[in-house]
Amino acid sequence: MYEPLAERMRPTSLDDYIGQQHLVGPDAIIRRMIESRNVSSFILWGPPGVGKTTLARIVASQTDVPFYTLSAVTSGVKEVREVLDRCKNDATSIFAKGRPILFIDEIHRFNKSQQDSLLGAVERGTVTLIGATTENPSFEVIRPLLSRAQVYVLKPLEDEDLLQLLHRAISTDRVFKSIEVKIESTEALLRFAAGDARKLLNILDLLVQSVKSTEPLIINDEIVTSRLQENPMAFDKNGEMHYDIISAFIKSIRGSDPDAAVYWLARLIAGGEDPKFIARRLLILASEDIGLANPNAMLLANATFDAVNKIGWPEGRIPLAECAIYLATSPKSNSAYMAINNALGFVERTGNAPVPLHLRNAPTKLMDDLGYGEGYKYAHDYPGNFVSQEFMPENLGHTPFWNAGNNPSEAKMLQRHLALWGNRDDKKK
């Protein structure tokens, strides 16, 4: 049976592992765990093809402990409990060399009950849990499990890492050692790989399969681009273009093209993407790229997320399409996104300025005696439910964080704002 190049090149020790030096380099946390043989539970979070599964296997092999794997896609509570029973037997065996490691791939796809079934074993130390996920664990992993497992972030591989992997494959793999390889340029290869080691190796697999054994393999930008255009899915067998396609989906909506948005949505659905992931990205986009230009966009995106959770597949594709078209055809504004970023930058520069006394609450007599709340003007006691007063910390004065977007909704908001406050840019203290 043919074994893909990515499997043939999978490293078995830290010495062969490429990238993620912040985790496996000299004196880095995972290297220290291996060297001390004291491995704590952790979750590896990062994009596809950056070495999550490989790193888990290396931890197990170099600490010489039993290693069990589960895929969250195919395993239920029953399979989890069966594996935990085996881990318990291993841990209590007189021949035990250490606590077994349970590796769960795509742990973000486990539901709450499946994750709950892991808690006891992790808490008692029956098993060391290593999870792998491409999704933010704070959204997808239950809080009790997160509190028992450190999260380590893996980064896309640098071009230097990918080039190292390229030369290692050519010089050590049995297939490449049997043919002549000429590297003329690598810009396209690195661009298509996009920090993903598995994608790079799959592209090399495609290239070597496209030449006769008597011909040299020439790697240059023109050949790489041509081969991938002829067979764009050949190096992406398991939906590894996840990040490329979701990026195209979001940018199509941001660019107000509903037809492209629906096309990329169909690609995500056909590729088996988690519908909650799609719905979550639509919710983020509604606030980041449409925002105050059409506040209803956030309401519809939130309703879409709820609907997808309730009705599931295949009907869930319909509210997703409805939402994508609505967002794509909505006016766009990132003024709220820019406002909070501007404010966060300002806070970082100015530090923890004290809250003015007139804005503080006074729930106790002591606070009242100290002047908390004194001088505060209650807006509803004044005509139009507005009265001018200072709401920023003393000595900071007014700083405009929000700049209205160029759309009817925000033009109306700006008009009311100026009617109340006037132009305050020249009123800083």
- Overall pLDDT, averaged? 83
Give the SSE order as H and E letters: HHHEHEHEHEHHEHHEHHEHHHHHHHHH
Morphology call:
globular
- Beta percentage is 5-15%
Main-sheet strand order equals 2-3-4-1-5
Uncertain segments: 234-240
Per DSSP E runs of 2 or more residues, the count of β-strands stands at 7
Helix residue percentage: 40-55%
* Distance linking N and C termini: 76 Å
Radius of gyration (Å): 28 Å
Structural class: alpha/beta
The main pleated sheet reads as:
5 strands, parallel
Question: Can you walk me through this structure?
Answer:
This protein has 429 residues and is of the alpha/beta class. Helices cover 51% and strands 7% of the residues. It has 21 helices and seven strands. The strands form two sheets. The chain has a five-stranded parallel β-sheet with strand order 2-3-4-1-5, with helices on both faces. The protein has a two-stranded parallel sheet with strand order 6-7. Helix 6 (112-124) links the parallel strand 3 and strand 4. The longest helix is centred in the N-terminal third of the chain and has 16 residues, at 77-92. Residues 234-240 have low confidence and may be disordered.
Brief rundown of the structure:
This protein is α/β, with parallel strands linked by helices and 429 residues long. Helices cover 51% and strands 7% of the residues.
